[in-house]
Specification:
By secondary structure, this protein is mostly helical. It has two domains: 52 residues, Homeodomain-like (Arc Repressor Mutant, subunit A), CATH 1.10.10; 158 residues, Tetracycline Repressor, domain 2, CATH 1.10.357. It is built from eleven helices and no strands. Helix 5 runs antiparallel to helix 8 and helix 5 runs parallel beside helix 10. Keywords: DNA-binding, Transcription, Transcription regulation. InterPro entries: Homeodomain-like_sf, HTH-type_TetR-like_transc_reg, HTH_TetR, MT1864/Rv1816-like_C, Tet_transcr_reg_TetR-rel_C_sf. This is TetR/AcrR family transcriptional regulator. One of its GO terms (molecular function) is transcription cis-regulatory region binding.
Length: 249
Amino acid sequence: MESRRDRLRAATVREISETARRILVEQGPEAVTLRAIAREMGMTAPALYRYFDSHGELLRHVVGDIFTELTGELHDAIHQVTPGDMSGKFLAVSRQFRRWALSHPREYGLLFGAPVRGRATDQERADFAEECARRFGWTFMNLFLELWRKKPFPIPADDEIDPVLRPQLRRYRDEIGVELPLGVIQQFLKCWIRLQGGVSLEAFGHLDFSLDDAEPMFELMLREVSGTLGLTYSPPEHHPSDRAGRSEG
């Protein structure tokens, strides 16, 4: 049974993480310092080292918490779709990923901008952000696995894949521990690069030079990706936050 001391420690860690995130959103990543967090919480900066060994470890904990939140929202979007509707699942999770990114630009930047560096003496803590990121990634991979089992889509044979890519795809497949043709792995990465790349360009403001509203371009990408996977594209229903601006940026 968890002791009172453990509960108090967990509550303090949660408050530190929430405070760091609030500073991130309100003031930007450069403002997330141990001194600023301690000041917000009425603590001294050295006191924070009882909970985190370094500034980098604290940021990695925040990254893990945010990945967990995002993964939960993606799963919620999937569960609102009829279980057998693979097209609906892919569209729902892709749209929710974009919606969350545009509503949380600074959190998105922390997750998908420059990697957060930092090592901890406690291996469990050091791996926290990576484990949360893996659970996020498996949200998309599991959809690909389910689709491949139910309705295999066209893929190239191994000898048709670029010889420079083949060993890299094989290594990645071994790392994630799935038994899939290399062509499926290649298709998964192609789709992910298009989805995450397009969302990042929009979330970071790199489409502003040409587009005031990038949603139609995003939907065009979804239509094309759906076709390559043998899925049926359907336009989105109106959602109040679909066209979210960058008011939090």
